[in-house]
Structures are given as structure tokens and as C-alpha cells.
Write the C-alpha cells for this entry.
Amino acid sequence: MVLLRAAFLGAVCVFVAATVSATPHQGAPPVPLSPPPALQAALRDLWARSPQVQVADAQLRAAQARARAAAQPLYNPSVQLEGENADVDRRTAGASLALDLFGKRRARVVEGDADVRAKEAAYTLERRNVAVEWLKAWAGAALAREQSELGRRRVALMRRFDELAAQRLKVGDISSPERDLAGLALGEAQIQQASLASQEASALAALAIVGVDAESATLPGLPPIMPPGAEMIVPVPLTERPELLQAQAEQDRAEAGVIVAQRGRRPDPTVSLTGGSVRSGTRTDRVVGLSVSIPLPVLNSGRAEIAAAQADADAAFASRRATTLRSDAVLKQAQVTYAALRSATESFRLSRANAFDERAQTLERLWQAGEIGSSDYLVQLKQSLDTALSGLALESQTWQAWFDYLAAAGRLTDWIDGPSKDMSR
């Protein structure tokens, strides 16, 4: 598992480096057409063990079985044997078969095919959602680990500050209130570190829920190279996104259900053929009979079933429209959010706010030299620590926004499985 995580980090770095160096034009795709093997293996293993994906797979197989059943003949033949001993001895055998004259079987086949397409899209969506959840949980766990490590460094700095304050108090360089201030700062740092440790445990638990035993593996940190810009990925056309494919298939299935209900209220005739012999005294006659029976839709006309199916079709149509609006809105939101976070992260990396270690050393030298007081030292150090923690959170949010954008653009599973179409199209 440790080797797998290390390979995963390296694969992500290689992937991002390749995407950053690519040029977004029509001739060359901006992202690798084949995903990094280590990442592909890790996520496929997750998909194989995910209960959500297993449920979606089982539902797809059930839909496929129902479609095969719908393609079978609608009616089975019946065989009837009769015998009678009385004044007239009768021995007959007959067979009957209901005839599908109104295309009930064809209508059910269309409905079953639409249901299969809906379940295929649901399966794709579930794989995508599980992958997004896993990747975002990994980014959150990596953030929590780095923040906890920074918190431990804060505790170490406050402990050193407390020890130096005690020494300077003995020689009279600082006052007793300043010495107490150092002790209070150490206590606050220890309390904050306990909170960070709790957040790290929660992040690891969230990752374990997704399907990774974080305690038995060394998780990689966030890659040092930022993911590419949103303009490097061209979203899948609206009608080809999994959520729209599912919504359209559900609408097709509901509309086919209306036809099934309409044809279901038309009674099919049953044709029976009977043959045998009838003996009366010394005379024996051969008999052949043909009969046709048709149910009368008097007590149950089937109109309620048609009304219900039509209402389902109307609901599916409205749901598809809502899905279309939601898909566009989510994509725009994800694109804007990712662009803003990525820009802020790049600016933070280039700013002086990112040089925490250097600032901490400078502040300690100034304090020991007496150029700044204890209060100023603590205020500036706390500001530097808070800024560093915010910078780590910003990087994690940027990676999570990147995963959200890939999902909203319909490109996440393409990146993992290898796209069936050019991602720069």
C-alpha cells in the first residue's frame, strides 16, 4: 500500500507536469489520453470494492435481464386434454395461444432498452461520484496532515519561546507579565494542536469511509505542481454528459411506458384448436374445433394505467429539463471557482506570505535582540502561522475544485479510464 501511494503521487505529478507543458489547440489534446497507470490501478481497485458501484452494477445487470425478458414472446401456448364417459364418450386434446396483435412485445422491448441506457448512465455517474469523493477525501487528508505538522512546529516554537522567556526573566531582560504571556501562548498552541489533530483524525476517517485504510498506508502530500488551467479542458457536449444521458434515457423509458400502457389496454385474442373423437353407441365421429376468445375491457378499461404512465412521462420530461439547467450551472460554477482558487494559489505561492520559516526565524532574532517586544513577536508569529495554514487550505481547496471541474465537465472518468474521444475537441 505504501508503494502504491508513492506511485500515485509520482503519477499525479507526471500527469500535471505534462498538462502544464501542453498547448491548448485543436491539434493536440492538453491532457494525456492515457491516465497514469498507478492512479488508474488505485481507482479501479476502489471501484471494485465500492458498495455504491456494486449496487449500480447490480442494477445495470438487472435492467439488462429485464430487457432480455421483454424481448421474449409475450404469451406461452396452453395444452388442454379432456375426457368424458357418459351416454357420449368424448376424448379431445386442444392447444391455445394468445396472439400479440398490437405490438405489446415491441413496446416492452423499447422500454427495456431505455431502462438499460438509464442504468448504464447511472453506473457511469456512480463511478464518477465515487472517484470524486475519493480524490477530494485524499486532498482533505493530505491537507489535515500538513496542517497538523505545521501545528506541531508552532508548538515547538512556542515551547522555545517559553523557555527563552524564562531565561530572560531570570536575567531581567523581560518583565513577569511578558513571561506569563509566553506561557499563555504555549498553552494556546497546545490547545490548537489538539484541534488540528482531531481534524486530521476526521479527515482520515472520511478517507477510510470511501475505501482507503489510511492507518496502514503513508498518504502522499499535495503535489507541488498546480493542476492546469480550466481552459486546458474542453467540457463534454451537454447531451453527452452522464447526467443528461441518464435523464434522457429515463424520459425515453417513461414515454415508452405510455405506449406499453396504451397497447396493454387492447385485449389480445386467444385462438384455440381442439381435436379428438366422440363415440355414441356404436358410432364414432372425429371432431375438430376452432375457437377465438377475446377479453372484454368492461370492468377495467386500463385508462388509469395510461394516465399514470403519462404523468410519469411528464415528470421525466421536467426532470430532464431541470438536469440540463443544473448541469450547465454546476459546470459554470465549478469553472469559475477553480479559476479563482487556482489564481489565488499561484499568487500566494509567489508572495512573501508563503515564506513562513524565514519569517519565523527573523521574528525570533528581532525578539532576542530586543528590537520587538513579546507582544509584537506573538502577534506577528500568529499572523504568519494563520497565513501558512490558510495557504495550505487554499491549495487543498484548489485541488478539490479541480476534481469538481473535471467531474462537471464530464472528463473525470475519461482521465481515469482513458478517453474514448479527444478531450481537446
Remarks:
- The radius of gyration is 36 Å.
- The first strand starts at residue 78 and ends at 84.
- Residues 104-171 form the longest helix (68 residues).
- The chain is about 65% helix and 10% strand.
